């Protein structure tokens, strides 16, 4: 079941690209954009995360941060971060448990039986962890509506 606007974002602890455990609670205190993406090194995911990277000055001006989350392992996320010079943390939800609590997952992703990937989803949280904006796509081939995300961040 997907997370709804006005609800409290579920706490989680996931590994970052250095295999360090990172909890949602450590990021609270700033506006937070949680960007769930299906897979590192795929075309649309690369475009999306590079778009977030290129908008970091704008996010910083709004006292906001970005956290990317996928089912990729920390090793793939580290290589993806380095190749694309990403300036925000990527967290590894390799069990897909967090993805299922937030936006949901694609089962048998890309026609591969047994392979689960996070649905492309974006959640904007206020500094206390309340969901202020939610966008979830069943189509992994489209990018999120960046204008809506910016409007949401600017609204509180």
Descriptive overview:
The chain has helices spanning 24-27, 43-54, 56-61, 74-84, 97-101, 146-154, and strands at residues 13-15, 21-23, 31-36, 64-70, 90-92, 105-106, 117-118, 120-125, 131-137. With 156 residues, it is of the alpha/beta class. It has a single domain (28-137), classed as Glutaredoxin. The strands form 3 sheets. A 5-stranded mixed β-sheet has the order 5-4-3-8-9. A two-stranded antiparallel ribbon has the order 1-2. The protein is globular. The mean pLDDT is 96.
Strand content: 25-35%
Order of helices and strands: EEHEHHEHEHEEEEH
Gross morphology is: globular
Mean pLDDT: 96
Please report the number of helical segments: 6
By CATH, the topology is Glutaredoxin
Instruction: Identify low-pLDDT runs.
Output: none
CATH class bucket: Alpha Beta
Structural class: alpha/beta
Tally of extended strands?
9
Could you name the CATH homologous superfamily?
A: Glutaredoxin
The largest sheet has its strands arranged as: 5-4-3-8-9
The biggest sheet amounts to: 5 strands, mixed
Estimated helix fraction: 25-40%
């Amino acid at each position: 079941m997907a997370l709804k606007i006005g609800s409290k974002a579920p706490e989680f602890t996931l590994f970052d690209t250095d295999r360090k455990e990172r909890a949602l609670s450590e990021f609270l205190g700033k506006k937070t954009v949680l960007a769930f993406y299906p897979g590192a090194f795929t075309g649309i995911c690369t475009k999306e995360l590079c778009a977030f990277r290129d908008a970091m000055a704008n996010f910083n001006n709004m006292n906001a941060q970005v956290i990317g989350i996928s089912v990729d392992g920390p090793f793939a996320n580290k290589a993806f971060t380095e190749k694309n010079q990403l300036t925000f943390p990527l967290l590894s939800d390799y069990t897909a448990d967090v993805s299922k609590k937030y936006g949901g997952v694609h089962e048998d992703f890309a026609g591969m039986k047994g392979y689960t990937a996070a649905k492309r989803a974006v959640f904007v949280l206020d500094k206390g962890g309340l969901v202020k904006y939610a966008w979830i796509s069943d189509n992994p081939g489209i990018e999120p509506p960046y204008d809506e995300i910016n409007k949401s961040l600017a609204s509180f």
